Amino acid sequence: MSAVQVSEVRRRGGRVRRRVPGSRRLAAGFLLPALLLLGALVVYPIAFSVRRSLFDAAGTGFVGLDNYGAMFSDDGIRTALRNTVVWVVVAPAVSTVLGLVFAVLTERIRWGTAFKLIVFMPMAISMLAAGIIFRLVYDQDPQRGVADAVWVAVHDTFADPAPFPGARPRPRAALAPSGGGAFSTRAAVRAGSPVELPLIAVRPDDLRGARPAAEAAARPGAVTGTVWLDFTRGGGGRPDVLDRGEKALAGLRVEAVRGGRVVASATTAADGTFALPGDRAAGARLRLPAADFAEAYRGVDWLGPALVTPAIIGSYVWMWAGFAMVLIAAGLAGVPRELLEAARVDGAGEWQVFRRITVPLLAPVLVVVLVTLMINVLKIFDLVYVIAPGSSLRSANVLALQLFRSSFGTDVDQGLGSAIAVFLLLLVLPVMYVNLRRIRKERRR
Question: Percent helix, strand and coil across the chain, each rounded to 5?
């Protein structure tokens, strides 16, 4: 380049670049191994998947776009597509919002670093291990599942459990089922004539501290009776007869019902006896309501077909909210503090500062986090595969899992599996394009 050309370039604000002989060939030599590796690991598998998606399950018959048509006509794959849309919309948004909240709030507390460490720790756990953890967390047995243990504890705080869940009378006894889990006497009762209401199938744990049952005394102006466990330990007892040593069933509600309306009620005492006013209860039928025998509340079926997808998304958020928090906290560290202080001096509240200054300034970082998580959830597989039980796996299905099941499952059809893989790639491309455009804009700035 001549001196005149150099001065012209400098006058236009350009830079003079000296070309080193052989530099292009040297750079190509360094890039060649990476390009070969990229072709072997990325380009070739994509090309092979596209070609394989045009053939049948055996790979010998050309079927054109039939696999793509079958993909959209299959109910299981449509469920997977619908669940994938839910994942893409919900999981990244919730993780990003939680990460933003954690990043902003931890700046206000002394132990913010320790809190960030705790929130970020799940990122050190593999998806497989996290799936095993949350399979136990969501177990419906409150003795094993943490989620149901908490839920049952809260429920039982505000709702009294049934005193004897599962208890019932003997067949052809004085009590008969009256609908809804309740039991009623077959005949109307009379004042001055004690009523015996024996039950069976009482759990041993519900009899701890129970006293021996006592025969109710006859009272002319009252309807009296006894409710007890008609079972003698060691055998030898008589059915429907109060034998010595048989246990009382205390705390049961006894109702007198006439014409479908409760006219009187009482609760059995510690010895199993009860008394109802004769002027109201005489001539009515006695009923033990279903609330006396309702099964104990067992919590929520988190891994049932209705809630399995939200439950698995919750485990994903538990893992990736820390990732979002760390990236957003790094962006927050670069926010000019003078802008925040100036807004506060001008009278803006903390919510206004957060909404109108902090969030707009963090928008580039939020977009990075959101796009990264969107690409990540499009590939979600292991969490769903490990957490969802076999009975709910179809309801929790996603495209990446369907790809595995179609290609390597019971009914192997690698043509259909390749079509799903190509479709999944097409879903990822727009997100990657948006991300590349954003990176180019950032470089221009």
Answer: 55, 10, 35
Q: Which residues contact 263 (CB under 8 A, 6 or more apart)?
A: 256, 257, 280, 281, 284
Q: Are residues 270 and 378 in the same domain?
A: no
> Token digits for 12?
């236009």
Contact 402, 80 (CB under 8 A): yes
The label of the residue with tokens 């006859």 reads 218
Same domain, 226 and 267: yes
Give 121's DSSP letter: G
Q: Cβ of 203: how many Cβ atoms within 10 Å?
A: 12
Tell me how many domains the chain contains.
2
CATH number of the CATH domain containing 133: 1.10.3720.10
Q: In terms of DSSP bridges, do strands 285-288 and 253-258 run parallel, antiparallel, or are they unpaired? A: antiparallel
Cβ atoms within 10 Å of 275's Cβ, excluding its own: 19
pLDDT beyond 70 at 101: yes
Q: Which range (83-97, 267-281, 345-359) has the least confidence?
A: 345-359
443 vs 216 pLDDT, higher one: 216
* CA atoms within 13 A of residue 87's CA, in its CB half-sphere: 29
Q: Examine the fold and report which residue of 292, 324, 345 is the final residue of a domain before the chain moves on.
A: 292
In sequence order, what are the beta bridge partners of 266?
254
Token output for 438:
């954003």
Residue span of the structural domain in which 179 resides: 175-292
268, pLDDT greater than 50: yes
Task: Return the exposure string of 22-58: e unless at least 16 CB atoms fall within 10 Å of the residue's CB, then b.
Answer: eeeeeeeeeeeeeeeeeeeeeeeeeeebeebbbbebe
Q: How confident is the model at residue 324 (pLDDT cuts 50, 70, 90)?
A: very high
Q: Are residues 314 and 343 in the same domain?
A: yes
Mean pLDDT score across all residues of the chain: 86
Is residue 271 very low, low, confident or very high in pLDDT (cuts 50, 70, 90)? very high
Helix (H, G, I), strand (E, B) or coil at 137: helix
Q: Among residues 271, 222, 232, 231, which one has the least CA distance to residue 251?
A: 271
Q: Could you give the count of Cα atoms lying within 13 Å of 220 in the half-sphere of its Cβ?
A: 0
CA distance 25 to 32: 10
110: in domain? yes
Give just the sign of the alpha carbon dihedral 374, 375, 381, 387. Answer: negative
Structure tokens at 279: 């002027």
- Nearest 5°: CA angle at 161, between 155 and 167? 145
